[in-house]
Amino acid sequence: QVQLVESGGGLAQPGGSLRLSCAASGFAFNNYRMYWLRQAPGKGLEWVSSISTSGRAYYAESVKDRFTIFRDNAKNSMYLQMNSLKSDDTAVYYCAVDSAGTGRGQGTQVTVSS
């Protein structure tokens, strides 16, 4: 079954950077479009970015030009490089196999604060 483990979150200052990782197992990772989603306190699940099997990237307007998604099919892994972080980026970040959050793990907390 789909197993996804997110890591790499933490505390960052506004304007800082973090890189999130997603380790996948239990399915044919290279055959799936993959997603990063996030959930801020008191809010619903929000799509952040997705990447096709060939590496084509898509971004929410709120993170475009600041975040970069990429994947390494040989390592069954996906990443999210987050630059120019803002307080609004504070959330639990999840990786998933669809925009509804299917298969997501425990998530990784990202807190942007001075």
Give descriptors for this structure.
114 residues; mainly beta; 6-stranded mixed beta sheet; 4-stranded antiparallel beta sheet; globular
Walk me through this protein's architecture.
There is one protein chain. This protein is an all-beta fold. Helices cover about 0% and strands about 50% of the residues. The chain has a six-stranded mixed sheet with strand order 2-10-9-4-5-6, with no helix packed on it. A hairpin with a 5-residue loop joins strand 5 (about 45-50) and strand 6 (about 55-60). It starts with a strand and ends with a strand.
Summarize the structure.
The chain has 114 residues and is an all-beta fold. The chain contains no helices and ten strands.
Helix content: under 10%
- If you average the pLDDT, what whole number results? 96
Strand runs, count: 10
- What's the helix-strand series? EEEEEEEEEE
Widest beta sheet: strand line-up: 2-10-9-4-5-6
The gross shape turns out to be: globular
Radius of gyration: 13 Å
Tell me the fraction of residues in β-strands, as a range.
Answer: over 45%
Largest sheet: 6 strands, mixed
Give the uncertain stretches in residue-range form. none
Distinct helical segment count:
0
Content-based structural category: mainly beta
Oligomer description? single chain
Distance between the termini: 40 Å
